[in-house]
């Protein structure tokens, strides 16, 4: 398996793990009789600050997927993983680090650190886009 495919699977797995964490938190509240199953705000703000950060961390994953996942899929579909493999795991690490930072705190410093990890992902995406465009226009 290429590093590109591994990063794509890792990205999907991480997104699912965050979703499962949201589900587990809500299920515990429902089974504990503290909330109705249909009483949750989508953003988690009505549960706790952590639940809100968890919902946003999950949302950040699916908001970025069309770009990051899309570029990984383009590489796989066009047999050009040599362009994405070198930075694929770094992108995934930055994605997970951004989420962890989001889960740990909503403070100013944590926001700056989250932005740093987001900037790494954006930089990698722009690099990949540049490589694809220059590779395909060279022919």
Automatic annotation (TrEMBL):
<keyword id="KW-0472">Membrane</keyword>
<feature type="transmembrane region" description="Helical">
    <location>
        <begin position="6"/>
        <end position="29"/>
    </location>
</feature>
<keyword id="KW-1133">Transmembrane helix</keyword>
<dbReference type="InterPro" id="IPR001129">
    <property type="entry name" value="Membr-assoc_MAPEG"/>
</dbReference>
<dbReference type="InterPro" id="IPR023352">
    <property type="entry name" value="MAPEG-like_dom_sf"/>
</dbReference>
<dbReference type="Pfam" id="PF01124">
    <property type="entry name" value="MAPEG"/>
</dbReference>
<keyword id="KW-0812">Transmembrane</keyword>
<feature type="transmembrane region" description="Helical">
    <location>
        <begin position="61"/>
        <end position="81"/>
    </location>
</feature>
<feature type="transmembrane region" description="Helical">
    <location>
        <begin position="116"/>
        <end position="138"/>
    </location>
</feature>
<protein>
    <submittedName>
        <fullName>MAPEG family protein</fullName>
    </submittedName>
</protein>
């Amino acid at each position: 398996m290429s590093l590109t495919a591994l990063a794509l699977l890792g990205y999907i797995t991480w997104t699912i793990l965050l979703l499962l964490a949201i589900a587990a938190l809500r299920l515990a509240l429902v089974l504990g009789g503290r909330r109705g199953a249909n009483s949750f705000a989508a953003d988690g703000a009505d549960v706790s600050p952590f639940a809100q950060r968890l919902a946003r961390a999950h949302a950040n994953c699916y908001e970025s997927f069309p770009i990051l996942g899309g570029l990984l899929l383009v590489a796989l579909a066009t047999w050009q993983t040599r362009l994405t493999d070198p930075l694929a795991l770094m992108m995934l690490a930055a994605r997970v680090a951004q989420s962890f930072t989001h889960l740990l705190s909503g403070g100013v410093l944590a926001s700056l650190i989250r932005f740093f990890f987001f900037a790494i992902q954006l930089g990698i995406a722009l690099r990949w886009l540049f490589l694809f465009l220059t590779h395909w226009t060279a022919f």
